[in-house]
Amino acid sequence: TMYIRNFNGPLLGRISESGSLRNINIVIENSTLNVTEAFAFVTVLNSGVIENVNVTIKNSSVNVVIPSEVTEAENTTYIGILSAVNSGTIKDCSVSCSSMSITGYEHVNGYISCIASMNAGHIYGCETQGEMLTDTVDTAGITAENMEKGIIEK
User: Fold this and answer.
1) Which of 55, 94, 145, 146 is deepest in the core (most CB within 10 A)?
2) Using CA atoms, how far apart are residues 10 and 82, in angstroms rounded to an integer?
3) Pairing state of beta strands 83-86 and 116-119?
4) What pLDDT, in 10s, does the model give residues 81-108?
5) Which strands sit side by side in the sheet containing 109-113, from one edge to the other?
């Protein structure tokens, strides 16, 4: 198990088509993040395989901050615990959140989800539990936006 305090991640910028992350437990505690663009705790972009990765987040907050000069049409921000954008495979993973808060601002189109915020790949056998407290950011358990080619199954 990997324990991280005062996290400012992500752990990985990208997992390529031939890459993978497997069989790891990650605990993130007591962290405050200011996010201005697509962000994930594990990887921003997954094109490979994430398998049997279990993430627990405790006593942490995410502030989605979009510069005021950015227009509403330009400011969609995807935030994922495992991946912000998935075009690969995420299999048999879990995310648990306790005492996690997400704050957005008036002109923010923020989407946060536990597995992948935007999915154009394959997610199966994943589960989430806990709660995320938010005011203006849309939240989802598995994915906030499942694209046309995205597949989610048990």
Assistant:
1) 55
2) 9
3) parallel
4) 899 999 999 999 999 887 677 766 655 6
5) 39-40, 76-80, 109-113, 138-140
